[in-house]
Amino acid sequence: MNRLQQLLEGRLGHESWLDASDVLTSDKGLSGEGSAALGAMDSTQLEIPHRLFVPEHFEPRYDYPLIVWLHSDDSSEWELDVVMEAISLRNYLAIAPRGHRTSPKSNRLFRWGTQIADLAFAENLVFECVDALIDGLPVHTDRIFLGGIGSAGTVAQWIGLKNPDRFAGVVSMQGVFPKHRCALSGWKVARQLPVLYMQGEPTCGCNDDDVVEAMQLAHAAGLQYRFVRFRDDVAGSNRDRLSDGSESVDAEMFSAANRFLMGIVTQTDISLDPEKSAYPGTAANSLPASFGWN
User: Fold this and answer.
1) Strands of 50-53's sheet in order across
2) For a tag site, which of 235, 237, 266, 280 has the least CB within 10 Å?
3) Using one digit for the tens of pLDDT, what is the confidence trace for 35-93?
């Protein structure tokens, strides 16, 4: 059993998690002003099943960047805990709505679907979460991000490209470029949206041909896509990997995502290259590329 499966299985042991009212925050031990802020969030009555992540040392007077995380297929909103442990425990508020389709593997796991109606449903869930958090918690409204793994990364791209004025950036791990035509219906405006498109080992979900196609489409439309490919070609490499059973995700992808997001937050050019100190000898296996409309 891989690491992500182990962590999720431990969280799925809570029988009450299926009730939306019980899935409120990843830290119910907050006190004082932090507790008061969460009380304000509770008053918004966000009824959809979701998982809310509150950062360490929560400061209610600080406007936080917000990550809306779309969980991978055959997973659930509880994936958010694992994701934020890998990205950052201090820098962001985050929320994960639950996919609306039940997985064939378990009625406790969920998917997003691939039809245009599924994408529209996910879009509505995202904005319901965003609006609720803006009303209840200190969110920097110009620093709202979308992210996801596999097909959820594709959904995140679709929503972001369709609504570029609502998001500061999108992170997609192993997610192919959205193929529904309306994804680029506002392509001229979508040029302003930074997107981090990451691929690890080629999978049936996102292979090399998919990356080439995404690069061609992004280049033709003048989109601000940054492409990073992670390869584990070094024999005996000790690089950690997280997997939901269908998509293998290099743990360094989450570090790159954090650097990408913080670059936007701080308006600085932060390198997305792997940290050599953490993964000796692997930098050559990461092939970053980026382009935008000039």
Assistant:
1) 50-53, 93-97, 64-70, 139-149, 169-173, 194-199, 224-230, 286-291
2) 235
3) 555 555 554 568 899 999 999 999 999 999 999 999 999 999 999 999 999 999 999 99
